[in-house]
From TrEMBL:
Keyword terms, alphabetized: ATP-binding, Cell membrane, Ion transport, Iron, Iron transport, Membrane, Nucleotide-binding, Transport
An annotated GO cellular component: membrane
SMART domains reported in the protein's UniProt record: AAA
Protein name (Swiss-Prot/TrEMBL): Nitrate ABC transporter ATP-binding protein
InterPro entries for this protein: AAA+_ATPase (IPR003593), ABC_SmlMolc_Importer (IPR050093), ABC_transporter-like_ATP-bd (IPR003439), ABC_transpr_FbpC (IPR015853), P-loop_NTPase (IPR027417)
Record-level Gene Ontology MF annotations: ABC-type ferric iron transporter activity; ATP binding; ATP hydrolysis activity
Organism: Pseudorhodoplanes sinuspersici
Length: 277
């Protein structure tokens, strides 16, 4: 499966339409209403509602097994919902372009293709002519200022470089929304720091609505405009915390009072939810 394609397109279920203006003072980019999902006897989501604002980087954080990855996988159509509706500016998933970056970068890339061809592959699937594919890929790489040898095969690249190629492959279609499922968790610490810097740069360059699942609270706050804190399942929104730290964020950000305060608040909410279980 490519980074931009999904396996399921669940039929929409009739629910009340979303408000023209959400809780953020503007029309939400993604509107979730009445979302329900069960795995065997475990009810992961039950009549769950959420609005995701446009043009922001949202980190999703919560206790282990609370349904963080399940949430973005349902939004991206990778697994079917049991009930509810997910709309993108009033449209269905099949009517928009999106990108998805998987946690396991080693399996996400095609090992027999050079990095350049991996990046342009979604355009090939869209039947874009070869000359245009080449031009668009070169333009993206130049625009982002990426310094990589794209003639290399994935096995010739470091983990961080492979994941950067995965992210560029997701961006090549100019997605309206980008999903990342714990994209740095398989990387060592040095590569993780590098990729956090790269993701910030990509986000600042493109302004693409981005939803990032993270298992690291410091990372979740550091990267986000808002942190979506989930409870244990059946998941509910424990808090949706805004963080206005100036970008690009650096090592100095970690000691700034607003960052420390926001992280402490998120930790308090997280611990409260863990104690409730």
């Amino acid at each position: 499966m490519s980074a931009i394609q999904h396996a399921f397109r669940p039929e929409p279920i009739s629910v009340p339409s979303s408000p023209a203006v959400g809780a953020f003072g503007k029309r939400p980019h993604v509107t979730i209403r009445g979302l329900s999902k069960r795995f065997d006897k475990a009810v992961i989501y039950d009549n769950f509602d959420l609005d995701i604002p446009r043009g922001e980087l949202i980190s999703v954080f919560g206790p282990n097994g609370c349904g963080k990855s399940t949430l973005i996988n349902m939004i991206a159509g990778l697994i079917p919902v049991d009930a509810g509706q997910i709309l993108f500016d009033g449209m269905l998933l099949s009517e928009i372009k999106f990108g998805y970056v998987f946690q396991n970068y080693r399996e996400a890339l095609f090992p027999w293709m050079r990095a350049f061809d991996n990046i342009s592959y979604p355009l090939k699937m869209m039947k874009v002519p070869a000359a245009e594919r080449k031009a668009r890929t070169e333009k993206l790489v130049a625009h982002l200022g990426v310094k990589l040898d794209l003639n290399k095969y994935p096995y010739q690249m470091s983990g961080g470089q492979q994941q950067l190629v995965s992210i560029m492959r997701a961006l090549i279609v100019e997605p309206e929304i980008l999903f990342l499922d714990e994209p740095f968790s398989a990387l060592d610490y040095e590569m993780t720091l590098f990729m956090r810097e790269q993701l910030q740069k990509l986000f600042m360059e493109t302004g693409t609505t981005t939803v990032l699942v993270s298992h690291d609270l410091e990372e979740a706050v550091y990267l986000a405009d808002r942190v979506l804190l989930l409870s244990r399942y059946p998941a509910r929104v424990a808090d949706f915390v805004q963080y206005d730290g100036v970008r690009p964020r650096t090592d100095a950000t970690l000691s700034e009072p607003d960052f420390v305060r926001t992280k402490a608040h998120c930790l308090d909410v997280f611990q409260r939810e863990v104690r409730r279980s």
